[in-house]
Write a structure and sequence with these properties.
alpha/beta; Rossmann fold; five-stranded parallel sheet; binds thiamine diphosphate; binds magnesium ion
């Protein structure tokens, strides 16, 4: 459970992350907006509540690690990192521009706070397993967090990693599957359905639950429960909406990699301002 104040604070932070996602993508005119907006609530809970990190010392040996395997959601991670104080917000507006340290997909050699380079779908799952094994070998109690897409989970590599995590009893690996029902070409169910994804991860030997991925309290509670696991990795399946927060984008396959011009930016920010107002008024 979260206090009422903390719940409001995290929901407002998620909304701020969404605003930064819109502004940074609008600054270059195009980007992976849909799958960035769908994980904003998760990132608020991770970076502003659950994760043991030090923004002034991003490589701190005792930190918790985050692998965003759906590396095209870079703009979401960068927005969260900037708000958390890893770097100045002004850097966000270099997104994907020449010589930037914020390429559209996550790059651990460029961005403070990025723990693994990702973008080739599926690979982050194996990397997270390796990081979790490595931290355990070093005697660390750090958690490794992993964010997967639902379309991404059609990759065979995700399931090899899932087997390996269970075999190695990686209780400090906590994964999230952003079940926003859409991939590039349309509905995941129509392209190649994941079926009963909760049952599948359970069958692979993971603690598995499904939660509302836009409810900061449900996310917090699920992560706290996952932290009590003794011998299994945990998979928290997030019931989410691609493009969450912007009326024009919500549930639209076309928001995967969308153009945002100045007019659309204003429209998106107006939607998010309305959400902020409602949150502050307790609606
Ligand atoms: C191995 C690989 N194949 C294809 C791509 C191109 N690609 C980038 S994002 C994407 C769709 C991913 O869908 P999903 O995981 O559902 O992402 P989200 O809805 O969260 O944006 C694809 C096919 C890639 N990055 N890597
Ligand atoms: Mg998806």
């Amino acid at each position: 459970m979260l206090s009422k104040d903390k719940k409001l604070e995290l929901a407002l932070t998620a909304n701020e992350i969404r605003k930064e996602i819109i502004k940074t993508i609008a600054s270059i005119g195009v980007g992976h907006v849909g799958g960035s907006l769908s994980i904003a609530d998760l990132l608020a809970v991770l970076y502003f509540d659950e994760m043991r990190v030090d923004p002034k010392n991003p490589k701190w040996e005792d930190r918790d690690w985050l692998v965003c395997s759906k590396g095209h959601a870079g703009p979401a991670i960068y927005s969260a990192l900037a708000l958390r104080g890893y770097f100045d917000k002004s850097m966000l507006y270099t997104l994907n521009k020449p010589n930037t340290n914020l390429p559209s997909h996550c790059d651990m050699k460029k961005t403070p706070g990025i723990d693994m380079t990702t973008g080739s779908l599926g690979q982050g799952a194996s990397a997270a397993v390796g990081i979790a094994v490595g931290n355990r070998l070093k005697g660390k109690d750090s958690y490794t967090y992993l964010i997967l897409g639902d379309g991404e989970s059609q990759e065979g590599q995700v399931w090899e990693a899932a087997l390996s995590a269970a075999q190695n009893k990686l209780s400090h690996l906590i994964a999230f599957l952003d079940n926003n029902k859409l991939q590039i070409d349309g509905l995941v169910d129509e392209v190649c359905s994941l079926g009963d994804i909760v049952a599948k991860f359970k069958a692979f030997g993971w603690n598995t639950v499904m939660v509302d991925g836009h409810d900061v309290e449900a996310l917090h509670d699920a992560i706290e429960a996952a932290k009590t696991s003794k011998d299994k990795p945990s998979m928290i399946v997030l019931d989410t909406i691609k493009g969450k927060g912007v009326k024009k984008f919500e549930g639209q396959a076309s928001c995967h990699n969308a153009n945002i011009n100045a007019d659309l930016e204003k429209e998106c920010l107006a939607d998010l301002d309305e959400i902020e107002k409602n949150l502050r008024e307790g609606k």
